[in-house]
Amino acid sequence: MSTLAIATAKEVFDLLSDDLRAIEREFCSDAVSSVAAITEISGYLREGGGKRIRPSLLLLSAKSQGYSGDGMIRLGAVVEMVHSATLVHDDIIDAADTRRGRPSANTTWGNAKCVLAGDWLYMQAFKVALDERNFRVLDLLIGLTQQMVEGELLQMEKLGQSISEDEYNSLIYRKTACLFEVSMRLGSVLALATDVTEERMGDYGRSLGMAFQIVDDVLDLTATEEVLGKPVASDLREGKATLAVIHALENGSDAERAAIQTVLIDQNFEVVTHAEILAILTRHGSVDYAMNTAFQYAEAARAALADLPDSDFKRALLWVPDFVVARDK
User: Is residue 49 within 8 Å of residue 20, measured between CB atoms?
Assistant: First the structure.
């Protein structure tokens, strides 16, 4: 294993800032339609900010393998358009009112316009990706879209139900980690990497994405609304069992399991309070269990980079798992 030092947040920002600004400009240009509502909704989603972690991963993957062309700017915009499309669709499915501390797009434009704008963004992402004239790029994006749609449908089928940890892992892979994996693989494709190298970069992205979603789910249970920018415990309110909840269901008493299941079925905290659920999770170390699982995935991500040549970009990739597990929103 390389003893290369992990980068700092400032070093990573300095490495990527120019390229990320170029991706923002590309996204802005690509998300313009002759239909005003599409341009407005796309602009609203883009201006909502976010961590831009997916295009950052694509940049780091490509650059760590020696690539320096414009394809990473185009494909960086592509993965961010795909991500934005999933967010607007998620908000419609979940009937969400807020996103990142702002009203969700569907509260302003309505569900019908937003679902169509999300569809348009998906298709625009594929149109931009066609500029690479690379069937592997399209193959990855098609597989990604199928996985994400399957994930949403599977999750809808499981609402209000107890699920196993394996089922949870399958869901979060489809909904989140698959896009992390594809972002890393796209960097390898641009760099004309071997299949083995692409696979290892994909392993990094998949493990990182699993850690990211587990932490997201923990924060949903434990953070404040002011920090999250959306209502807390929204997963439980929507009938979704996440990892800490699954652990408590498997280890709790009959009464504790019944309390959790009441919230999952009722999709509110009218009979059992959020504080009571947190107390159950605390008694069984369920939040710690989830976070320890996230740490294991973060370490697996770093291990996947063992054979990647040392560089500033590799140092940055070694830093990202720490950022993912240590964030507060």
Answer: no
pTM, two decimal places:
0.94
Domain ranges of the chain: 9-313
Listing DSSP states for 195-218 in one string gives HHHHHHHHHHHHHHHHHHHHHHHH
Each residue of 261-313: pLDDT tens digit? Answer: 999 999 999 999 999 999 999 999 999 999 999 999 999 999 999 999 999 99
DSSP 130: G
The CATH code of domain 9-313 reads: 1.10.600.10
Closest CA to 186 of 82, 324, 268: 82
270 vs 79: CA distance, rounded Å: 39
Number of H helices, E strands in the chain: 17, 2
Q: Tokens 């997201």 belong to which residue?
A: 216
- Phi/psi for 233 (5° steps) reads 55, 30
User: What is the per-residue pLDDT across 213-235, written as a single tens digit (0 to 9) for each?
Assistant: 999 999 999 988 878 777 889 99
CB atoms within 10 A of CB 313: 23
Can you read off the two tokens belonging to residue 269? 């905290």
The CA-atom distances, in angstroms, between 79 and each of 76, 91, 114, 251, 299 are: 5, 18, 19, 39, 24
